Structures are given as C-alpha cells and as structure tokens.
C-alpha cells in the first residue's frame, strides 16, 4: 500500500495530457492571449529540466499566467479560456504538473505579497458543474490540494477561504460509496491537506462533513452499524467482546466471523485495503492534536471502540501500525477519559495478541510497547470501584463482575451514591432514559444496579426517586425483553419492601 495517486486520477490526467489543443486557433478566437501561449509553449511537452528552468527564471510571469495579475491586461489563462472546457482541463493538469515538480511556483502563486487573492480564478471552478461526469471540479480540487500542500500554506486566504470549500468538496467524494475510486481520491487528497495544525483545526471544525464519512467507512470495515448513536455503540461493545464473552484468540475469530470471510484486497463490507489505509492515515494525522480532539472524537464517534475492533481485524502490518499509533496518541493525551474505555474494550488483551505476531516494523514494535505500558500502568492502580465508575462513565453497561457481586455493593453502594454529589446515579438515570432497542441488556443491568443501591442504602432511595429512577423502573416492567422485566421487578421489589417496613 502506498500514497501514490489513485489510478482513476492518473488515467484521467494522462488522457488530458494526450489531447491535442489547437492553440493557434484559440489565440485567433481570443480564448488564449499571445503572451499566455508563449509561456505555455515554453513548459508544455518539454523535458523536465527545460520546464523547471523556464518557470524558475520567470516565477512572477507564471504566477500571473495561472493566478492573474493586478491589471486587466494580465488575466489568468483560466479566466481567458473559461468558455473552452478542453483548454481549462488542459491548463489545470499542466498547472498541477508544474507545481508538483517546481515547489517555488506554488509559493509564488500563494504569496500574499504578490497576489491578495491567489484563488480568485481557481476556486470558483470547484463549483463549476454539478455534472458528475465533468472532470473540471475534480481536477480543480487536485490542483488546489497540490498548491496548498506543496507550499504548506497557512495564510488567511488558504485556511479561512479556500480550505473550507475544498474540504467540503472532498468530503462529497469520500461519501461516494458506489465509486471506490472517487472515495480514495477524496480521502487521499484530504490527507495531503493536513500538513499543519491550522489545516487540521479547520478539518476538525468541519467534522460533520469531513470526519463523519470517514468514520462511516471505518464502521463498514469493522462490520458494525453505520447509523451512529446507540446502534453503533451497541454493535461496537459486542464486537470488542466487552459484553462478557471470552477474550483472547477466540474473541478475535468471533469478530472476524461477524464480518464474513475477508475478500481478497478488502476487509468487512467490501472496503478496499487501500481505502482503509488512507482513511486511517487521515485519522492518525488528526491524532497529532489529540489533546484538543480526542475526547470529542470518541464521544461523537465511539472512536476508541472502533479503532480497537479494527485493530482486531487488521489484515496488514501497515494498517496495524496506523491504528496502534493513533490509539497511542489519543490515550496518552486523554488518560483520565479514554483509558477506562480502552480497558473495558479489552484493548490490553488484544495488544498482547498483536504483540505476539512477528512485526518487521520497528516503529510499530515501539508504539505497541508504549501503549501496553500505558495501559498496564493505568490498570495497576485501579480498584473495582474505579472500574465500575469508568464503565458507567462510558454510557454503556455490560455484565462485568461488579454488577453481580454482593460484596462489591456492600462495600461501595454508599460511596456510589455520594461520589461527586451523586454524579454516578445521574449517569445511570441518563443511561436508563434511552430505549436501547438493539441492546436491552443495558437496561437490565441498570435495573440490577438501582436495585442493589436501594437494598444497601434504603434511606437514600428518595434521592433516586428524585432522579426519576423509580418511575423508569416501573415503566420497564412492561418491556418485551424478559431479562429487563425480571430485573425491573427485582429493583421495584426492594423499593416496596422498604416502603412497607417504614410505615
């Protein structure tokens, strides 16, 4: 796997380069000006060293050729040839070729000193057509991506104006699930744009457009619900084996069976390995800002669970490398919030299995060890109470040992009610308020816990009633799920018992 240009894009560009353009006729028609043609011919279909020398000896002239000058007599060739689609396509490919091989041209075009609005003749081409068969928007996106990434530009014109529009366009490509070629172009060009903190910040600010389609691709690859919300969370908790099933290699094989037999060159849902790699590359780049985005990335997209499941299924060392590095960045920067979820998702046991494989990548080996050490240090200092609080804080319950332990409740029920001014019961109330249509076990577990709190600390049951928990428990007695009905009946029984005893 590599970051070479997608085949579809390369084929399109080669086709356009091979097309004959009647330049002299274009000059006679006023489509191209004579001075513009002279500069085009100096760099078109010539050897690379000749092209490079011509551009570097006249950087300002070529800046004006493509971006336009200050006067009306210095229009951009894209402006002059606006009505000739064939010429516009050719110029866009030529410009991309020049910028890729001559970085100084990109810097000259985007220089604020030279041109207050370097994008005024290029950016509008992104919205030139809604026709999916029109290559101009795609070629424009490629040119803009190359310009920004080669120059590593963080000017206001780039970050505040051009980049948001470009990211929006690329996100539409990333959503083209019926066309993996376009998806790959959108994702790979997005990756090229995340060259600095400012561009990553803008990418994250537009996450409903930019991150969401990437997460959907990853969910498809992981074989879990792509709808988001409770359905996805429930699917991920089940997939990680954190619902009480055994871990280790059996958990790994069960996870693979859930997504079916892996196709040649693809993973779950038919997601191509190349596309998967590029999506993971973008999320890894985003994790450079883990302290700013980590909590929200997991809160909104269940990312720690998703990455853990993908690590379990990862078919290639390169995808494993990106997943481990991303998790290391996120967990290191957000220890108090994300490490508990990682432990509940059984990441430590999974990392032990991953480390047992033979990896040639020394960076992967180092990151694996660092991540294992990080998790070991965390778990070594945590009590059963800490584990329970961490589980409740995830917003998703499983039948972990504390729930059925009479010793645990005898020792910790009062602390659970009093800790942080009753934050844990409030969180339980929030969990119980959801329907959990695809994971009714969560409601059964919550009823079990409420019943234990009432049983151990009956004098505080009025506090639970104020949170609406008694009413909710009574409602759940009418649930279709047998386990939920039973646990709600048990919980209400405790309430009634103490109510009668105090009369």
* Radius of gyration computed on alpha carbons: 29 Å
Shape: elongated
| Average pLDDT taken over every residue | 88
Q: Could you tell me the strand content as a percent range? A: under 5%
Count the helices. How many?
A: 30
Q: Terminal Cα separation, in Å?
A: 73 Å
Tags for this model:
Leucine-rich Repeat Variant; Serine Threonine Protein Phosphatase 5, Tetratricopeptide repeat; single chain; 3 domains; elongated; 30 helices; mainly alpha; 503 residues
What would you say this structure looks like, in words?
With 503 residues, the protein is mainly alpha-helical. The chain has 3 domains: 1-205; 217-380, Alpha Horseshoe (Leucine-rich Repeat Variant), CATH 1.25.10.10; 385-501, Serine Threonine Protein Phosphatase 5, Tetratricopeptide repeat. The protein is built from 30 helices and no strands. The chain has helices at 7-17, 23-28, 34-43, 48-56, 59-67, 77-80, 85-101, 103-109, 136-151, 156-174, 180-193, 197-205, 207-222, 229-239, 248-258, 273-286, 290-301, 303-313, 317-333, 335-344, 347-356, 362-380, 384-393, 401-404, 406-418, 423-432, 441-456, 461-466, 469-476, 482-501. Helix 11 (180-193) packs parallel to helix 16. It is elongated. 44% of the residues are buried. It comes from Sporothrix epigloea. Residues 382-500 form the ATPase V1 complex subunit H C-terminal domain. V-ATPase is a heteromultimeric enzyme made up of two complexes: the ATP-hydrolytic V1 complex and the proton translocation V0 complex.
């Amino acid at each position: 796997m590599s970051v070479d240009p997608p085949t579809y894009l390369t084929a399109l560009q080669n086709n356009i380069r091979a097309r004959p353009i009647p330049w002299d006729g274009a000059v006679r028609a006023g489509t191209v000006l004579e001075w513009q043609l002279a500069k085009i011919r100096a760099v078109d279909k010539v050897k690379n060293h000749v092209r490079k020398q011509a551009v570097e000896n006249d950087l300002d002239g070529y800046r004006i050729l493509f971006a336009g000058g200050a006067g009306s007599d210095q229009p951009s060739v894209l402006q002059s040839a606006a009505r000739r689609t064939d010429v516009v396509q050719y110029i866009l490919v030529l410009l991309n070729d020049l910028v890729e091989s001559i970085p100084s041209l990109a810097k000259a075009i985007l220089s604020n000193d030279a041109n207050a609005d370097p994008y005024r003749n290029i950016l509008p081409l992104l919205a030139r057509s809604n026709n999916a068969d029109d290559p101009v928007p795609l070629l424009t996106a490629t040119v803009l991506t190359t310009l920004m990434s080669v120059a590593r530009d963080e000017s206001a014109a780039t970050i505040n104006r051009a980049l948001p529009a470009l990211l929006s366009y690329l996100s539409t490509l990333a959503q083209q699930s019926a066309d993996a070629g376009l998806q790959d172009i959108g994702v790979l060009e997005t990756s090229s744009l995340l060259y600095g903190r400012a561009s990553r910040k803008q990418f994250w600010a537009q996450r409903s457009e930019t991150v969401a389609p990437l997460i959907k691709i990853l969910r498809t690859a992981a074989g879990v619900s792509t709808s988001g919300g409770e359905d996805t969370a429930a699917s991920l908790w089940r997939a990680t084996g954190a619902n009480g099933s055994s871990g280790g290699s059996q958990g790994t094989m069960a996870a693979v069976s859930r997504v079916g037999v892996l196709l040649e060159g693809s993973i779950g849902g038919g997601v191509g390995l190349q596309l998967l790699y590029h999506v993971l590359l973008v999320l890894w780049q985003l994790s450079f800002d883990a302290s700013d985005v980590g909590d929200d990335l997991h809160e909104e997209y269940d990312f720690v669970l998703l990455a853990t499941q993908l690590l379990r299924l990862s078919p290639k060392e390169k995808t494993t490398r990106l997943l481990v590095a991303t998790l290391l960045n996120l967990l290191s920067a957000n220890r108090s919030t994300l490490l508990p979820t990682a432990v509940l998702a059984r990441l430590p046991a999974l990392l032990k299995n991953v480390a047992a494989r033979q990896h040639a990548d020394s960076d992967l080996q180092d990151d694996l060890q660092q991540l294992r050490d990080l998790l070991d240090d965390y778990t070594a200092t945590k009590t059963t109470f800490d584990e329970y609080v961490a589980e409740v804080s995830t917003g998703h319950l499983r039948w972990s040992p504390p729930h059925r332990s009479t010793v645990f409740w005898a020792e910790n029920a009062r602390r659970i009610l009093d800790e942080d001014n009753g934050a844990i019961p409030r969180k339980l109330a929030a969990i119980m308020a959801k329907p959990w249509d695809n994971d009714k076990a969560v409601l059964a577990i919550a009823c079990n816990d409420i019943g234990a709190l009432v049983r151990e600390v009956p004098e505080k049951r009025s506090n639970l009633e104020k949170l609406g928990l008694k009413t909710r428990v009574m409602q759940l007695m009418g649930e279709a799920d047998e386990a939920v009905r039973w646990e709600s009946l048990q919980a209400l029984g405790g309430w009634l018992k103490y109510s009668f005893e105090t009369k």
